[in-house]
């Protein structure tokens, strides 16, 4: 019973963490997105690029990545789904889930769909709040 | 602990409310969809149109909106995701989430995708059931 | 209170069951996918085809279905969403939800989107784990 309750609570907490995290990302609030990682958090989202580390490193990487949209205004939306959550012995959580990026341009009702990705996170509780210790994004078109 | 339990319960309740609500909408059961709002509920879904109010007003607005499909049979599906839920001091819930409309036509396997939207709801419990006090839909292509 | 807790626990359990189930399916681990059904489970996913029954039957049907990709490498992703869960008197669960298939080909960033489906499952607990007693997939383009 306790373990059922725990899995239930974890599952809602993970979903809420991701909802808030992607809304920061898609709102281009990169420093706040970076703050959803632990201080030594690792973020690897672009194939062939080295991972970014720490709040400043993640913020810098997202700023760099999003320069491509400087003269191409878009509203991006990251959708996460089919989230598997597995608690580890050490209290960390392994999650594996699907991610899809939708990119809408002004005046165009149909978003560009893709890439479709598989994401592997390690999450940690800090002062009762979930944080990403790491994120590895695998792009399906690179299988 | 109580607050964790509460957030967990709220999160599942909100997801279930939305699942049932959109299945009514996509089943063209507009009066039943309207009944998922409070009696004085406000529904604003079309950019530039005034909000509809109350069960009759919401039903009428959806009937009007869907006339465009009278000679164009479609199966629409509303997908909600990345749901942020924030309880307010007054017992109401603020939610912010992504919505995507998928429109399938007979014999065509690939749905039309879009618009992609950001939705802000205010939810209230009535006799233990969640209801929408309001819904504001923002279309990403109108950013 | 107990019933609220139960619905909450059920909702998380169903989401987790589906997350793990589709990751097996999309990983082409068909025997393991089949094992997420009860021993006498029924699986009906292709319009006009008879349902498959039991672990061996479901594994064989998925192997047959996926032969079409033998010379066309793809990464498929099944997305489930808007999940309605209704416990029955007999302890089984009726679920109704939306499903969308995304198919990504090597080097192509935009997945093929579709079909969009409505799925009706009956789920059972076996030794504390959810299993599908049945699954009926309805394709929206066949409405």
UniProtKB/TrEMBL annotation, chains A, B, C:
Residue span(s) of domain SnoaL-like: 9-135
SUPFAM superfamilies tied to this protein: NTF2-like
Superkingdom of origin organism: Bacteria
Entry-linked InterPro entries: NTF2-like_dom_sf, SnoaL-like
Protein name per Swiss-Prot or TrEMBL: Actinorhodin biosynthesis protein ActVIA
Biological source species: Saccharopolyspora shandongensis
Organism classification: Bacteria, Bacillati, Actinomycetota, Actinomycetes, Pseudonocardiales
């Amino acid at each position: 019973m306790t373990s059922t309750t725990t899995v239930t609570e974890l599952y809602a907490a993970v979903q809420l963490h991701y909802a808030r995290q992607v809304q920061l990302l898609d709102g281009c609030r990169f420093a706040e997105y970076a703050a959803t990682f632990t201080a030594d958090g690792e973020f690897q989202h672009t194939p062939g690029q080295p991972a970014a580390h720490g709040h400043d490193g993640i913020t810098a990487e997202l700023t760099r990545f999003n320069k491509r949209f400087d003269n191409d205004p878009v509203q991006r939306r990251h959708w996460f789904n089919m989230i598997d959550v597995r608690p580890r012995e050490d209290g960390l959580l392994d999650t594996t889930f699907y991610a899809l990026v939708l990119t809408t341009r002004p005046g165009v009702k149909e978003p560009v769909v893709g890439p479709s990705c598989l994401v592997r996170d390690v999450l940690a509780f800090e002062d009762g709040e979930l944080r990403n210790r790491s994120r590895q994004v695998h792009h399906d078109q690179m299988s």
